[in-house]
Design brief:
The chain is α+β, with helices and mostly antiparallel strands. It contains ten helices and 19 strands. About 35% of the residues lie in helices and about 30% in strands. The strands form three sheets. Strands 1, 2, 8, 9, 10, 11, 18 and 19 form an eight-stranded mixed sheet that branches. Strands 5, 6, 12, 13, 14, 15, 16 and 17 form an eight-stranded mixed sheet that branches. The chain has a three-stranded antiparallel sheet with strand order 3-7-4.
Length: about 400
């Protein structure tokens, strides 16, 4: 059955954190928007431990999520502020980052992925129950004079001025619109798990560059931390084959005892680390956001932050368009693409470059990378700029 309704301004495919937050912000401003997803959104039942997927959220991302309405619905007792960052090189390199002078807010927040998505969903159900439909996939797309006709798996058909792909790194919509994606493996796998510590983390996000690999321990509420270990392929498989006690001992050997004893409290997961670039972010009446548009190394924890800033930029572009162009106007979409390409490319280059330098031969690069860290540690204004850039 075909719906005979006025065209939507925007249809968003993908009800993850980025897609649902974008839909809520547009809805608040009177934009006719619909969000669809192939799966129902799961409820987050707060576990005794912590969600396996943990995000380090920038202040800019927090602001966008507050604007969307989801941040206020999260259990604040499960959100850990990042008060400081410490980076340890593979020799004597040291780098510490703190909030800029005069800044009263923390550097960012550690949030559980399930809690964040569930909070957005609860807010959406309350303020805009018609915004989201799940159990749907796109079966066909037809171009019309001033809209796209999007045919869905249950026989529905919607017209929309703009179609937005927020459907992840393996975006089906990106392929439908013929936008090539280039994947560049980093040669590492990320192992993620949560740990109980016998000491105190002090709200400090810690990172170690060990020979050929990167280890991050992010603070969680109480005496807990979340591990992201970017390990070389064979070593990653060896770590996964260990018992929890053996794995904790292997981690302890690398990071020492500053946090006390480490005890693994979750089943570890792993995933391949790859950079992903797209040839273009837009097509006629079509735009990419979030993981559908880019993939970065997780060492700086910027993947979701970049996606939420895509959503914030696209929302501002559409909301501020004035009475002339509709939401699918090419000039608007080109403005969005130009605004987002550079900051994403900078972050991809920064994280990818650091991953390469610290994965390279220790003899060849060791002195240079650790010397550079120590020089940066003594340059307070540049450190302030780094903190400011990360929170844009």
């Amino acid at each position: 059955m075909t719906r005979r309704t006025p065209p939507l301004d925007v249809m968003i495919v993908g009800a993850g954190i980025t897609g649902l937050a974008l839909g809520l912000v547009l809805h608040q401003k009177g934009v006719r928007v619909k969000v669809i997803d192939r799966r129902p959104l799961p409820e987050f039942a707060a576990p005794a431990g912590f969600d396996q997927r943990i995000y380090a959220m920038s202040l800019a991302s927090e602001a966008f999520l507050r604007r969307a309405g989801g941040w206020q619905y999260m259990d604040q007792a499960r959100i850990q502020p990042i008060l400081w960052m410490k980076v340890q090189g593979d020799r004597d390199g040291r780098l510490s980052l703190a909030p800029n002078r005069g800044q009263t807010a923390p550097m960012g927040w550690i949030v559980e992925a399930g809690a964040m998505l569930s909070a957005l969903h609860r807010h959406q159900t309350k303020v805009a129950p018609e915004l989201l439909e799940t159990g749907l996939t796109v079966s066909a797309i037809h171009e019309q004079d001033s809209a796209l006709e999007v045919c869905l798996s249950r026989g529905q058909s919607w017209q929309t001025r703009l179609l937005v792909a927020a459907d992840g790194i393996h975006s089906d919509l990106r392929e439908r619109f013929g936008i090539p994606a280039h994947f560049s493996p980093y040669g590492h796998r990320a192992i993620v798990a949560n740990y109980r510590i016998s000491g105190q983390h002090g709200g400090v996000a810690r990172q170690w560059f060990v020979p050929g690999e990167v280890i991050a321990l992010l603070p969680l509420v109480g005496q807990h931390v979340s591990l992201v270990w970017s390990a070389q392929g064979d070593h990653a498989q060896a770590l996964l084959a260990m018992s929890p006690v053996q794995r904790a001992q292997a981690l302890q050997q690398q990071v020492g005892y500053e946090l006390g004893l480490l005890e693994e409290i979750s089943v570890p997961a792993d995933f391949e680390l790859r950079r992903m670039d797209v040839a273009r972010w837009i097509a006629p009446r079509f735009a990419l956001v979030g993981d559908a548009a880019h993939g970065v190394h997780p060492m700086a924890g910027q993947g979701l932050n970049l996606g939420l800033q895509d959503a914030a930029c696209l929302a501002e572009t559409l909301i501020g368009r004035g009475p002339g162009p509709d939401c699918g106007d090419r000039s608007l979409l080109r403005r969005y693409e130009r605004a987002r390409r550079e900051p994403v490319a900078v972050m991809q280059g920064l994280t990818g470059g650091l991953a390469h330098v610290f994965s390279a031969s220790r003899q060849r690069w060791g002195w240079a990378r650790n010397w550079g860290m120590n020089r940066l540690e003594r340059c307070s204004w540049l450190k302030d700029e780094l903190v400011r850039y990360a929170n844009r």
